[in-house]
Amino acid sequence: MEEPNVGELKPPERVLLGPGPSNVHPRVLGAMNTSIVGHLDPYFVDIMDEVQDLLRYVFRTDNEWTLPVSGTGSASMEAGISNLVEPGDTVLVPSNGYFGARMESMAQRAGGETVRVDAPWGEPLDAVDVQEAFNEHQPDIFGFVQAETSTGTLQPDVSELVDIAHSHDALTIVDTVTSLGGVELHVDDWGIDVSYSAAQKCISCPPGASPLTLNDDAMDKILSRETEPRCWYLDLAELEDYWGDNRSYHHTAPVTNIFGLREALRIVAEEGIEERWNRHLRVSGALKSGIEAMGLEMNSRDDAWLPTLNAVRVPDGVDDDTILRRLVEEYNIEISAGLGDLEGEILRIGCMGHSARAQNVLYLVDALGEILDDEGVDVSPGDAVAATSDAL
Length: 392
Hints:
A 7-stranded mixed beta sheet has the order 2-10-9-8-5-3-4, with helices on both faces. The radius of gyration is 21 Å and the shape is globular. Helices cover 42% and strands 15% of the residues. By secondary structure, the protein is of the alpha/beta class. The longest helix is centred in the C-terminal third of the chain and has 21 residues, at 273-293. It folds into 2 domains: 26-270, Aspartate Aminotransferase, domain 2 (3-Layer(aba) Sandwich); 272-391, Aspartate Aminotransferase, domain 1. It has helices at 26-31, 42-59, 73-84, 98-109, 127-137, 158-167, 216-223, 236-243, 255-271, 273-293, 320-331, 358-374, 381-391; strands at 15-16, 65-71, 90-94, 113-117, 141-145, 147-148, 153-154, 171-175, 194-196, 208-214, 309-313, 333-334, 336-337, 346-350.
């Protein structure tokens, strides 16, 4: 076999305004470019404590069971679901987006019997429908998505849905992958039992170590399971021996990723979590103003608009692939197309973390306006940029 001829790594410097990853602050990259230590080194054990404290701050929780799961957001998702769901449990899941469907798949693989609460793609769940689903099915666990990445939809009444579940003695699992660090979230005050997220979105850290938090009720259920979970790597009873007081070996933690996550969370804390929520709302609101001034439509209604992921309807007569390709080739901007039921119908524009800056949304609105105008869509790029600027 011939020796591979592989050149030097030189990735392009994109403006990342898709559904993730977002651009990373230079401080985070610097933290990941430091000396490596062992995952049981006393120095790293101290770092573990700091990361857990920082995660509690961002989740707004005092949960002891708060840790970064080794892997991307889907790993923390599977850790939460596969540990909490036991064979025979009835799990209520939403049908209003791609990631609600992923919850359903994971719950079924864990042995759960799934039932659905329905809502159209692009609309939040209705509390009345959730109540009716509980009355009919009496589920043991209710999973839903606070920020549905596939549709740009925010679930506005999280605490109300949690209260419905608790009134039926059910536990809740809330997907906060596209909301943690960018949208208002109060795990303790809202009574959320399990919440999982990802590092590469509003936290602006390269993927590889993903936040997860569980309260005592959830961990009591996990620790009293009659059967072992159908995963070894993500077994939270085993992981807690590593991330808890014992610090006993389970697997080799991604040390460099956790260094990066620590620095990214430090940046969040320095900004202040409430100011960070407000920044995302302000900058993304300006983007929304520019989009609408261009004559384009948002996919979600205003009371369910998700600031961190703007879903924009593709105008008639334009192919979404053309828009995406030209943004990358001519402007070095990355956004994304729709998924599932909305494939080919929407553009997904992220406004998250270090990417959620005024210069980025102004640049995107200008570029998108020029492309659509060139493709024959009746838009006014100048008006769109002016509206974005005024909102900022």
